[in-house]
Every structure is written in C-alpha cells, then in structure tokens.
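On clarity, I found the account of how folds are encoded harder to follow than it need be. What matters is that the chain and its backbone geometry are given together, residue for residue. I therefore recommend that a typical entry be quoted early in the introduction. An entry of this sort, consisting of the sequence and the corresponding backbone structure tokens, reads as follows:
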Amino acid sequence: MLLSLLLTAIVGYLLGALPVGFLVARAKGVNIFEVGSKNPGATNVRRVLGHGPGNLVLVLDAAKGALAVALAYLHVKLGGESSSVWFDYTTTPVELARPIVGLVAAILGHSFSCFTGFRGGKSVATGTGGFLVLFPMGMLIGLVVFGVAVAASRTISLGSMLGAASLPISAVLLPQPTSLVVVSAVVAVFVILRHRTNISRLLAGTEPKIGQPAGADPPLSKS
C-alpha cells in the first residue's frame, strides 16, 4: 500500500509539474516568469499573450489534475480494491487514499515544479481538474461560486479564492467522507495562501480587473 501511494505521489507530482504555461509562453518567445504578474498560470498567460494561449494553458493545467486523480483511481480499480462503479467515492477511505494523494501531489507539482526551479502557479486550474474527477458535484458548485464572484467583482483572483473556499463547505453539506472534507479544506487554504499578494492588492484596490493588464493602474474614480 505504501509503495503504491508513493508511486501515485510521484506520478501525480510529475504530471502537475509539467510547466504548461511556461512552455506555451516560451513557444511565443516570452518568458512568462518575467512579464505581467510573473505567474505561469492561465490568467497571466491570457493577459500577456491573449485568449488562445491562455485558454490552452487553462485546459492543459486542468487536465493535469484530472489525469492524476483518474490514473490513481484506475490503479485502485485494477488492483481489485474497489467494487464500486467508476468515480463512486461514497465507500471506504482506502478507495479515496490514492486519488487524494494523486490530487495533492499534482497541486504541489504545479505550484513547485522541479522543471522551473520549484516555481509555479497557484494551482487553481490543476485543482479544478482534479476535483472535477474526485468530487464533481462540489467542484460544479465551486465553479458557480467562481462565476458569480467574477461577474460581480471582475477579478479572477477573488473568484478563485471563493470557489476554493466553497469546496469544504460543499463536502460537509452534501455530505462526503471525512478524508474528502479534510483535503478540500487543506487545498482551499493552500490556494488562498498562494493568492496572498492578490489579497493585498484587493485590499488596496489595485488588483487588475478582467481586461486590465497585470501591473496596470486601477481605473480612476469618477467621483
């Protein structure tokens, strides 16, 4: 069991560590760590290079998390440790152990990639992809929260944090196994901590809005 968990962690980390944003930007002749918010996530890529490259990074980063969880659960199924249907996580902690390890490893890989000097993004897209497989109903609720928050504030960072914060609440209310509640809470805290500079800018009123380049001055008040 420990060897299997270690293998899951290694595979999940390497998947998460694939520097998609860096590679997509590099293909356009840009070092994403030196422009905009200097973050290799989809939001910064979109601001710097446009919607096409940004959306590509978004999809591929989400796929990393989804694949890490799906491969872990497939290992559980092939190992005969689960008699449940595909993606049914209402049974035992053993069935959840590998998918959770795969998800956490992918998130850590994305944020601290060994391929880019342990620099990385904030793991919102990678976490979203993973939770869409691990806890689809909770993640769908999170996406609704994200959409409402972004529509109201026009800031991706606030929507990302509120969407992440909704996950453990959904896990408690639905309800889900304790291990899933715990990992949802841990990931939510991690995502929020990765946004601490965004929090400072939100409080100062300088966080870029949708369509506004990172680092640009906020719009002047009309009052």
User: Anything to note?
Assistant: The two ends are 63 Å apart (CA to CA). The chain is about 70% helix and 0% strand. Residues 216-223 have pLDDT under 50 and may be disordered. The CA atoms of residues 132 and 139 lie 6 Å apart.
